[in-house]
Specification:
15 strands, about 30% helix, 2 domains, five-stranded mixed β-sheet, six-stranded mixed β-sheet, Peroxisomal Thiolase, Chain A, domain 1, alpha+beta, about 375 residues, globular, OB fold (Dihydrolipoamide Acetyltransferase, E2P)
Amino acid sequence: GEANATRDRLRRAGLDKDWPTQDPDARPDETFGEPLGRGEGVERALDLDRPTTAYAVMGSAIRGRRGESLDANRKRLGALWERFARVAATNPVAWDRSAPDADAIITPGPDNRMVAFPYTKALCANNRVDMASALVVCSLERARSLGVRTDAGVFPLVALAATDTPRLVDRADLSRVPALEALVAETWRVSGLGLDDIDVFELYACFPSLVELSTEALGLADDDPRPPTVTGGLGFAGAPLNNSAGQGLAALTRAVREAGGIGLLHANGGSAANKHALGLYGVRPPAGGFRVATVSVDAPRISVVEESTPDVEVDGTVEAYTVVHDRERPARTLGALRVDPATRTWFASDDAELARQAESADLLGARLHRRADGSVAP
């Protein structure tokens, strides 16, 4: 668990936390996988190592692939997030149970500022929370010895993980995550189950673009009667960043037991949605035992012009972008220009007119000239 809300209140009040501290030389007893990483090079320069920026850029690419207008996209995102808000309103441990409607979610205002267009604060994860969760995991034999009825337990069926291209700037298609698509396919193959067998879902929901990607990979329609969450997501239920999936799993375990069926959990981490895991859980022991696997994915990559030629000037077509806001106004428009099928470049501009156009008339598909300093002109 985490106590970021309390920490922030103490800091604003100028009070010492007086909490136990960890030895700076302490090392974990066991580690898993590769370091997460948080961007480097052009990603760091463009703030693409900030989740709000990266996921908003991915969201614009998804919108472009779907052929949506700015207005249609914002309305769809609002309707999607309203579903999460409704679930959070029924979750007794959710941080925000106010259940705003779609219009309130997507409309900027004093309490809902624009963060990275089109993501308002209400469309972003909230990590200023005090939250914790716990699960008891043991063998069926041990549970029975403790007097736990078999029908009171929830059984892990399968757990699979996959890793995509770490850096967003290197991905050939900014609107897709091949690792997630392969992970879903392999989960169905290994488990022998399919979408229709799932009773309850807990999809990792830090930002709308990730839910768009996971529901697409699963084939879960926006109007499916099964909600995509049992918690309300990281925006409304809360996002203790080191335990968000743990919060979800605790809630899903309860929901699976109540439904008497099967639940699916999606977990995400790393840089710009590059690490994924899926778990299936049910009320009956898996016939073939619990299975764990890692899915190997060779995701296509693309060259970034300015990393080999720093002062390049080049023309390209906008394939993804966002407008990053400070607390009062648009601060910077940034995005990707596709130069040719194998090459892209990235741009950043503090031009107010470009930001206005990006948020009102759309930049996707526009031809722009990238100057040597990374700014752009028509």
